[in-house]
Inverse folding.
């Protein structure tokens, strides 16, 4: 069973990586871009096959390691 | 209109960030994890509202800037 976690900066938190990408896209001639934000995606493969247990584990992982609750949001997808 | 690009390392390409996360999760007592891979997610907001045009632009952005075609795969979602 596979879990995918998206970790993105909360709105209002400065995102220098996203700004750098936006600037580079402008330099390359791309137009009409109003905002760029960059985040992380973490894919975790589990031996466990019970969705509820996997989700509970991943929630704990996000709280303890994967995301910083002050500045980041996370979203979990199980497949 | 918003595009979300997932950039992940191709399988077979060494992923030291993912390995570091796997190791840290093990240290925290999480068990039954067979693999961890870490990638990037880039969210781009467009003024343009035509899905086909936005998708074509984002494909070009991936080829020219966002992903390294030798080592990385990318997937585009438009919403």
């Amino acid at each position: 069973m596979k879990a995918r976690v998206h970790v993105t900066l909360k709105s209002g938190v400065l995102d220098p990586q996203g700004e750098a990408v936006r600037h580079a896209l402008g330099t390359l001639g791309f137009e009409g871009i109003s905002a760029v934000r960059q985040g992380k995606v973490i894919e975790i493969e589990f031996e466990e096959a019970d969705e509820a247990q996997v989700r509970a584990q991943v929630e704990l992982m996000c709280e303890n390691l994967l995301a910083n609750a002050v500045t980041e949001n996370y979203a979990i997808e199980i497949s």
Q: What stands out?
A: Residues 2-78 of chain A form a domain with the Mth169; Chain: A , fold (CATH 3.30.1280.10).
